[in-house]
Model the fold of this input.
Amino acid sequence: MKSARYILVATLAAVIALPIAALAAKADRKKADDSHPAFATIDKDSNGSLSEAEFVAALKEKLGEDGAKAKFSELDKDKDGKLTSEEYAAATPEKKKKRKKDAN
Done:
């Protein structure tokens, strides 16, 4: 009988903890995306990373398909086939520095 209680308590704990953990993870992803609104816009499946297809679709008009693929490859530092918000953000400071330099 005691083992049935333990199973019941463990099940209830999991039922309570899992949604809370999911909400916390979602909040962390949202926080990371807030610093780069464009990242969140490009991330169509909201999984917290950009696939090459998502990246190319977003930048194909601006860079052309080959240019967007080349840029994706350049930004994908760990070569895992997806861009994290950190990898995406790595390109941002260069643009800001360039804009400041062009403005002066």
